[in-house]
Design goal:
Aminopeptidase, 34% helix
């Protein structure tokens, strides 16, 4: 997603919080939304001062929703955030495949190509329904329709983002899924969003689709693939494991609703 990002680093007594206003989520939710991208707390009471600075920054920008992801070992930071009002929403895993040489050919023939603007509507419809285990749909305090709109909006924004490529997958003429990918200078690939069309889920095409994508990246010279997935999405976690992906340190996701969000 593209847009101007208002970023800030709050520092106090050796601690720091990096955060920014998220323009795409702000547009969807209709109120300012922020994300913490890094947090290191100082010792003892000094941490309380840094969190007070965060609260003040949010008040100044009228932030109503703040999200944060932390490594699962950062218990001190997670407890401090919970004391401020953050609530745990999900755990996420970060599958990675650092050797694409052993990817097997898919059992089913799947065609993958770049999405044109004429096909965006069908892809957006998949995105609206596919991400049922995402944090915006898991948090019962948030309107699930807004979460669905967020992922559909991401699809459209990816077409105009020079860092991202929107790819569609078809069996014959039927649309079966899509991937939003980022090809990075170090020859790695990051999968931002991956989805099988709801009507094709449970029909055994996931493995073939993932293999098709991996072989496409290998042919283009990529050496590794990484992504992030909710721990609630057990079928796809198992798919990654069967394909040889390894799993790094899991991360905890927190949301802070500074006011009632309806």
């Amino acid at each position: 997603m593209t847009d101007t990002i208002e970023a800030v680093t709050l520092e106090r007594d050796g601690g720091a919080i990096e955060c920014f206003v998220v323009p795409w989520d702000t547009a969807i939710f209709g109120f300012p939304v922020a994300e913490i991208t890094g947090i290191e707390l100082g010792a003892g009471d000094r941490a309380n001062g840094l969190l007070a600075d965060l609260d003040a920054w949010c008040a100044d920008h009228r932030i109503r929703l703040v999200s944060c992801r932390l490594d699962h070992t950062k218990l001190r930071e997670s407890m401090a955030l919970e004391a401020l009002g953050f609530r745990f929403v999900e755990m996420v895993h970060q599958p990675q495949l650092d050797d694409l040489s052993g990817v097997d050919p898919p059992a089913r023939a799947i065609t993958v190509d770049v999405v044109g603007r004429d096909d965006l509507g069908a892809i957006e419809a998949i995105a609206s329904d596919a991400f049922t285990t995402s944090r915006f749909l898991l948090d019962p305090r948030l309107d699930p329709d807004l979460g669905r709109r967020r992922y559909a909006s991401w699809v459209r924004s990816s077409v105009d983002d020079p860092r991202q490529i929107l790819l569609q997958a078809r069996i014959g003429e039927e649309l079966v899924g899509f991937f939003i990918v980022e090809e990075r200078p170090d020859r790695s690939v990051y999968w931002h969003l991956t989805a099988v069309a709801p009507g094709w889920q449970g029909r055994g095409i996931g493995r073939s689709l993932w293999q098709t994508m991996l072989l496409r990246h290998r042919a283009a010279g990529a050496t590794s693939v990484r992504t992030t997935i909710s721990a609630h999405n057990e079928p796809v976690i198992n798919l990654y494991a069967r394909l040889g992906f390894t799993f790094g340190s899991p991360r905890m996701t927190f949301h802070w609703l500074r006011e009632t969000v309806g």
